[in-house]
Amino acid sequence: MGKHRRLGGYRLLDEIGRGSTAVVYLAMDAHGREVAVKELIPELTGVQEAIDRLAREMRAQARVRSAYVARLLDGAITAERPHVVMQYVPGCPLRDLVSAYGPLRGDRLARFARRLALALGDVHDAGVLHRDVSPHNVIVLGDRPTLIDFGIAHESGAEQLTRRGMVVGTPAYLAPELIEGERAGTASDVFSWASTVAYAATGRPPFGRGSLHGVCFRILRGQADLDGVPEPMAGLLRAAFRRDPARRPCARWFAGALAPAGGGAVAA
Question: Fewest beta carbons within 10 Å, which of 7, 106, 117, 173?
């Protein structure tokens, strides 16, 4: 990294992620603690739209308090190198974990699904929509998921700038109303939760792979592939995949439905 080995009060140790708008580094703070630093790529540091999006991400993530969501720690939107600082979450993205070791099974799958529903419930209780729940935005350590990346999150009452025909999020995990250009809501996140849990259970995106057109067609037609998902999990996912967002239960309902028999809480 040469001359860029420091950013603000943080020492950058290694690049751990890169997207079209930002780079994420493993870094160390002044007290020797590991953190994750997300910095806009140099080409976007003067682009107001990119800076505004980073500011929205920071505001949204600052509102959420959850054992299953990465915490916002710091940020400097107006700095020469705009960045946000988040809790570093050890583990492996769900996408990579399932690809390397196969689907989650049995009680491990149930604990994963419940904890991810709890994460989403905490996000929604904070008045935030995540809008990109998918296997690459869930870090797993053991069977403990942590939801990351609020890059396209919104406060639930905020104006949404999505235009008809403009898909925002990971298409294979999007709710049908978003594909049709409607407003995102908590039920849209619930649909994406179910798609992510289905992937964890089978190792396959529930609406298939291939062309964007084909995937979106299957989502709009409700053609979810749940082959291999055990009951009662499959029944819960079918409820979350209901075409009408108003008929999908909320994230807290799913967390309750996935609680162990007898009402005991899943250990944190």
Answer: 106
For 72-120, the pLDDT digits (tens) are 999 999 999 999 999 999 999 999 999 999 999 999 999 999 999 999 9
Binned at pLDDT 50, 70 and 90, residue 160 comes out as very low
Task: Name the catalytic one among 52, 125, 132, 149.
Answer: 132
Residue 132 among the catalytic residues: yes
Q: Are 188 and 131 contacting, i.e. CB atoms less than 8 angstroms apart?
A: yes
Number of H helices, E strands in the chain: 8, 11
CA dihedral (223, 225, 207, 266) in degrees, to 10, reads 120
**Quick one: 2-87 is in which CATH superfamily?**
Phosphorylase Kinase; domain 1 (3.30.200.20)
Beta bridge pairs of residue 28: 11, 34
Query: Hey, how many other C-beta atoms are within 10 angstroms of the C-beta on 143?
Result: 17
- CA-wise closest residue to 26 among 139, 155, 189: 139
Which residues, in sequence order, are bridge partners of residue 22? 40
